[in-house]
Amino acid sequence: QVQLVEYGGGLVQAGGSLRLSCAASGRTFSNSGMGWFRQAAGKEREFVAAISWIAGITYYTDFVQGRFTISRDNAKNTVYLQMNSLQPEDTAVYYCAARGTPYSDSNYDSSYWYAYWGQGTQVTVSS
Questions:
Q1: DSSP code string of 15-64
Q2: Which residue ranges of the chain lie beneath pLDDT 70?
Q3: Fewer Cβ close by (within 10 Å): the C or N end of the chain?
Q4: How far is CA 124 from CA 7, 28, 47, 68, 101, in A?
Q5: What stretches of 40-91 adopt beta strand conformation (E)?
């Protein structure tokens, strides 16, 4: 059974940093893209960042570009999201996701293409 478990959420002041981790089990995702999405209260889930199965290729949405960094450790089957310069508008539940089809980055910003999801971790940024 595939499981994704997120860690690292919490409460932080504006301008602070958090590092989210997502540990996968049940299968290896070294050949699959992985991503982070978030959902704020009353809003739809939105894409944050994705990392390709190809080393060094990452994707970000405009509002986190330059502040967030996605990375992965295939040996640990884990993906990370380093979040710096956090702002109150970054407050949301953050979800880790993994693509079910390997060797593809198409539509990396669409939740439809991710087959596996974590339970989410709350990030709250106070002003």
A1: T--EEEEEEEESS--TTS-EEEEEE-TTS--EEEEEE-SSTT-EEE-TTT
A2: none
A3: N
A4: 14, 31, 18, 15, 32
A5: 46-51, 58-60, 68-73, 78-83
Task: Enumerate the β-bridge partners of residue 49.
Answer: 36, 60
CA dist 85 → 42, 45, 104, 107 (Å): 23, 21, 31, 27
Backbone angles phi and psi of 90, in degrees to 5: -85, -5
Q: What is the pLDDT of residues 65-80, one digit of tens each?
A: 999 999 999 999 999 9
**What's the rounded Cα separation, in Å, for the pair 45 and 119?**
13
